[in-house]
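Field reference: "sequence" (input) and "structure" (output). Example, Delta-aminolevulinic acid dehydratase:
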Amino acid sequence: MTPTRRPRRLRRDGIRELVSETSVSASDLVVPVFVDATLDERQAIESMPGHERVPVDEAVARVEEVLATGVESVMVFGIPESKDETGSRAWASDGVVQEAVRAITAATDAYVMTDVCLCEYTEHGHCGVLTSEAHEAWEDGAADSDAESLTVRNDETLELLARTAVSHAAAGADMVAPSAMTDGQVGAIRGALDDAGHQDVPILAYAVKYESSFYGPFRDAADGAPAFGDRRHYQMDPANRREALVEAELDVEEGADAVMVKPGLPYLDVVRDVRESVDVPVAAYNVSGEYAMLHAAAEKGWLDLEAVALESLLSMKRAGADLIVTYFAEDVAEAL
Ligand code: PBG
C-alpha cells in the first residue's frame, strides 16, 4: 500500500513557489472607476463596499489612489448629467467620460480604458436605439410587453457606438472597450477610429458578454438598469458555450485587439475555451455581483475576504485570462 507517486513532495515551502503554475500581479489588473456628472462630492456605492461614484473634478484624485496601490490601469464608466432617447451624452465632446479622460490623461500616467455603451445614457436604459414596438411599449409603461424580445435596433446602433468610441479616443483614451453586444460593433468602431486618425487606439471587445444576474450592483452604481424588459436579445444566453467561440472569433475578425469574457468566476469554462480558440489576449471581467457576494459573506464572518478575492483572481488566470477587470484590484495589489 505504499504510493509510488507522492505529489505532496512538491507542496512544501521552498519548492511550492518554484513549481507554481500561475500568479496574479498588480500589472494584470484593471480597476473600474465611476465618474458621475451629477455629483459635487463623492458618493459611496452601497452594494460595492469600498467603491464610490466621484464627481468629474475628483477623477484625477481617484486615479491617483489607484496608482498608489500599484495598479496602473483603469476602466472609466460615466454617469451623465442628463439622459435622452438616443444617449447623445455618450458621444458629447464635453460629456462626463470625455472630460474625465482628458483630465486623467493630462495629470497621470494611468493606462485609461473606456467602456463604450449607451445604457447609462439612454432614458430607457437599453444599450442602443429602440425598435418602434419597444418604444411604444415603453411609452405605454408596459414593463412586460412582447417587445422585450426585440428591443434594440442593431444596425442603427452601430453608428452611435462608433461616434462614442471616437469621442473617447479624441479625449485621450488609451483603449476603448465596447460592451453593447451589438453585432458588428468592433468592425464599425475600428473603421471609425481609423478614419478619425486613431489607428493606434486598440479595442478590448466585450466579446462574450452574458445576460447575467451578476450585474445587479453595477446597474445601481452606474444607473444603467433597463427601464423595461431585459437584455436577452442582445446579451448571450448563460446556457451557451459554443456561441462564445462564435462571438470571440467574429470580434477578432472585425479587428479586436483583445477579447473579454464577462462575468468571470461563473464562466471559467468559457474563459478557457476562448483562450484556446483565439490568439489575442483574453480578459475576464470579475463583475459587481461577484464582488458583492464575497463582501456580503465576509461581512458575516463566513469567508476571509482577502483570501477568497485572491483565489478568485488566481482562478481566472489559471483558466486562461491574461488580464482581469476587477473591483478587488486595489485591495489585492496592496496585499500582494
Ligand atoms: C454596460 C456594462 C455593464 C457592466 C459593464 N458594462 C452592465 C450591463 O451590461 O448591464 C457590468 C459590470 C459589472 O457588473 O461589474 N455598460
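The pocket of PBG is lined by residues 115, 117, 119, 179, 215, 218-219, 224, 287-288 (CB under 6 Å).
The CA atoms of residues 81 and 275 lie 39 Å apart.
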